[in-house]
Amino acid sequence: MLGQGRLEGGIISERQPIGKCPPDSMTELAAFQQHDHQPWPVFWVKTNKARLVGRMLHWRDESDRLCSEGVYHLAERRRLAEDTLSAQLLVANAKLLPGSWTNILSNWNDGGNYFHWMLDGLTRLAVREQLPETTGFFLPKDPARFVTETIQLLGLEEFARPAPSGTIRPETYYFCAPTSMTGVWNPLGYQWLRNRFSQYFETPASGSPVFLTRRGAARAPENLAEIEQLFSNSGFTIIDCGTLTVREQIRKISAAPAIAGLHGAAMTNILWATAGTPVLELFQPGYLNACYEQIAFHGRLAYTHAIMDPHNSRNGLSLWIRNQQSGAGSRFPHTQ
């Protein structure tokens, strides 16, 4: 409709390039096609007839059609049937909200997960920067600490407000499309995040190598204490990102000469790593996801992965660490 001139707005990108999927990469092994969810259009639309419904404030128009990109419905990563809260079609008294607004909340971004907040939430502010006027935008009602801190670091506190309850009708609504399907190749979003947070980077390789742990979280290995000890004995600083501010995480990761960590939201911080930095991501058998490998491809990081099991855990980790210390390379020895 936008392309046909039936809506007011702008198209930023009709599609982004296809990403990398080398043989034996995590992208290939995970089999989510995370390098190739295209075409995914990045655009904005202005309307005075929007109705925002459900907990994630999804856009329905005057004909009660739901904006497909708003619920990430394009490539079957999430189905419309799962969006049960947006099915609140008949609400007697929608609340009128004066002024101009946009929304960065979604099914993937409720403000409770660091990765989804950074890659699926904040990146929509890149689209907001293309709007013809300044708008307010909505935050989760009970935001995690990293949500409010990132907004402060971006200097946008005066434009953000907690999402209202119930169905609302903004006086003017700008729909800002997500910059990609979640967890996939997204050069537009990656570069925007790097640019907007670069003022908080430290000098590359000026700090210690880091191991991003995952204490008490799902998919943490049973021998986590042993793994932490191995890295600690090798000069790595053990970091529990949940105990640090976002600014501290950016500072430590941007300065790290090498990064290792368990698959999980803390690995989002490889966004801040310098090109060429060795990165090792550890996976538990049974759950593979290439979202961080795709970030590593953007940053030209020396990324490798390890699927942990009794045969490769300690010996493989020790060899990878020695390789970083000697400058011999970053590839994890998958076969012993």
Account of the 3D structure:
- By secondary structure, this protein is of the alpha/beta class.
- The protein folds into two domains: 8-188, no CATH class; 201-326, Rossmann fold.
- It is built from nine helices and 13 strands.
- The strands form three sheets. The protein has a six-stranded mixed beta sheet. Strands 10-9-11-12-13 form a five-stranded parallel beta sheet, with helices on both faces. A two-stranded antiparallel sheet has the order 3-4.
- Strand 9 (210-212), helix 6 and strand 10 form a beta-alpha-beta unit.
- The mean pLDDT is 89.
Which percent range describes the beta-strand content?
A: 15-25%
**How many independent structural domains?**
2
Question: What's the pLDDT, averaged over the residues?
Answer: 89
Which structural class best describes the helix and strand composition?
alpha/beta
As residue ranges, the low-confidence spans are: none
Question: What integer value in Å does the Rg equal?
Answer: 21 Å
What summary fits the major beta sheet? 6 strands, mixed
Total beta strand runs: 13
* Overall body shape: elongated
Strand order of the largest sheet: 1-2-8-5-6-7
Q: How many DSSP helices?
A: 9
In short:
This protein has 336 residues and is an alpha/beta fold. It has helices at 26-30, 114-122, 124-128, 145-153, 187-197, 224-233, 246-255, 291-299, 313-326, and strands at residues 8-13, 42-47, 51-53, 58-60, 95-103, 136-139, 160-162, 168-176, 210-212, 237-239, 259-262, 278-283, 302-307. Strands 1-2-8-5-6-7 form a six-stranded mixed β-sheet. A five-stranded parallel β-sheet has the order 10-9-11-12-13, with helices on both faces.
